[in-house]
Amino acid sequence: MAAISRMDLKTIIRFGIHLARIDNDFADFEKKILKRFADTMGLTQAEREQLLKGEASLATGLKGMSSSDAKNLLIKTLCAIAHSDGTANKEELEFIQKVITKFSDSVFVYPREEWGMYEEEVIKILEANK
Q1: Are 74 and 65 in contact (CB under 8 A)?
Q2: In sequence order, which residues have a C-beta less than 8 Å from that of residue 129 and are 6 or more positions away?
Q3: Which of 9, 40, 81, 130 is most buried, most CB within 10 Å of its CB?
């Protein structure tokens, strides 16, 4: 796996925050998994605050993704966050599908009942990209 740029990692977290807020309920499970990902990435407090303030734009945010590895990590991250409370809701599923549709190349996603596996996989990928 090629290294994923720091900018791509921040974009992934920004989209994760957006997904966690999409149903207007930024749940503790979602905060916990995002914190774990941010800790593993080594995000500073200033970077975290900046990402919490920013917006995730499907129109422009995904254009900057520099590699298929980054795109796959984004999808895995979104799936892990959506599953963090045990189930993905309609808004989360619709957003994930929009992200997948925006990518011109194919992205593999496990069936929803297996999305819980993504948390540890994302952590391993993030650790490899330190």
Answers
A1: yes
A2: 3, 4, 9, 41
A3: 81
**3-class SS at 31?**
helix
Rounded Cα distance, 105 and 67, in Å = 11
Q: Which helix (H) or strand (E) holds 5?
A: none
pLDDT for 40 equals 95
CB atoms under 10 Å from CB of 35, counted, come to 12
**Has residue 104 got a pLDDT over 70?**
no
**Separation between Cα atoms, residue 106 and residue 47, nearest integer Å:** 31
What tokens appear for 60 in the block? 């422009």
Using CA atoms, how far apart are residues 96 and 75, in angstroms rounded to an integer? 7
90-102 helix and 6-21 helix, angle to the nearest 10 degrees: 150
Identity (one letter) of the amino acid at 119?
E
Give, in order, the Cα–Cα distances in Å from 13 to each of 22, 111, 113: 14, 22, 23
CA 98 centroid distance within chain = 13
State the pTM of this model: 0.90
